[in-house]
Amino acid sequence: MGGKNFPMGQRKPGRHRRTVEGFGGVKIALLNLEPSFWSDLYHALLTISWWQFWLIISSGYVLVNLLFGLAYMMVAGVANARPGYFGDYFFFSVQTLGTIGYGNMYPEQTATNILVAFESLMGLFGVAMVTGLAFARFSRPTARVLFSKVAVVTQFNGVPTFMLRMANQRGNQILEAQVRVTCVRQEISPEGVEMRRFYDLALIRSETPIFFLTWLVMHPITPESPLYDLGLHRGNIPDEDVIFVVTLTGVDDTFSQTVHARYNYQIGEIIPEHHFRDVILPGRLHERVIDYTYFHQTLPDKNELNP
């Protein structure tokens, strides 16, 4: 019929389309890739949002009771259920699935008792699985790290320096914290192949034993830096597809578990010839005051950056 024949054992490519979030919040469409929700259901139920999780659980709960309510109605072996009234059979299924107790309605036939036994078994498995999933979602360690909305390029010790700012939003500490900044650039190789290249930026301080308050992450733009040819140290904003990926890992001292955080900066979110406004204010004796009102604010440098 004019279609292409595929060898035995190979399937014709599908037309599946799935959208994921890439670097910088850019939506990436994946074509001809089999959907992975059902093939990795446990991971999907752990990573979806809470409202999606409860929507799936609630929909499954209602669907199971609808199916069993229909089965009880077809068997017609429930005492005191009004004939032909689906609501009685549905709520009988709800009571059976939740092992609540029947009250006025109870099974009175062998077929109905078999359905009751099967639904009760499903209820036990369902409660165990939903409880485990909910506990896993609640107990999953997370880090609440505040990243500055922009990054800057300013002078530090006489060297143009790429800077961003982070803060721990919780009152606890992140131990053995490590930060990594990667520059992702779209390049064309000498052979004419277009690809994404990853460049790790050397930081003045990439780790700290305790991350409690704020952290100014700095990368000097020297001639050896991957950012030197971008011209950021000269006040230029290149018209290129460049993304800065910042990742933080450490150990939460409350749960003694590894936590991580990630943030992306587009090239348009880099402000040359600016520096961050100071957030540390004078306080009482032996007191440090940090005002997060100015956390994202920048100020222009007094002098232009050296070329």
Automatic annotation (TrEMBL):
Transmembrane spans: 50-73, 85-102, 114-136
Pfam families tied to this protein: Ion_trans_2, IRK_C
Membrane topology of the entry: Multi-pass membrane protein
UniProt-annotated location(s): Membrane
InterPro entries in alphabetical order: Ig_E-set, IRK_C, K_chnl_dom, K_chnl_inward-rec_Kir, K_chnl_inward-rec_Kir_cyto
Domain Potassium channel: 65-136
GO terms for cellular component: monoatomic ion channel complex; plasma membrane
Domain Inward rectifier potassium channel C-terminal per the UniProt entry, residue ranges: 145-299
Keywords from the UniProt entry: Ion channel, Ion transport, Membrane, Potassium, Potassium transport, Transmembrane, Transmembrane helix, Transport, Voltage-gated channel
Presence of keyword Coiled coil: no
Parts forming coiled coils: none
An annotated GO BP: potassium ion import across plasma membrane
Keyword Transport set for record: yes
Gene Ontology terms for molecular function: inward rectifier potassium channel activity
Domain of life of the source: Bacteria
PANTHER family from the UniProt entry: INWARD RECTIFIER POTASSIUM CHANNEL (PTHR11767), INWARDLY RECTIFYING POTASSIUM CHANNEL 1, ISOFORM F (PTHR11767:SF102)
Stated name of the protein: Ion transport 2 domain protein
Species of provenance: Gloeomargarita lithophora Alchichica-D10
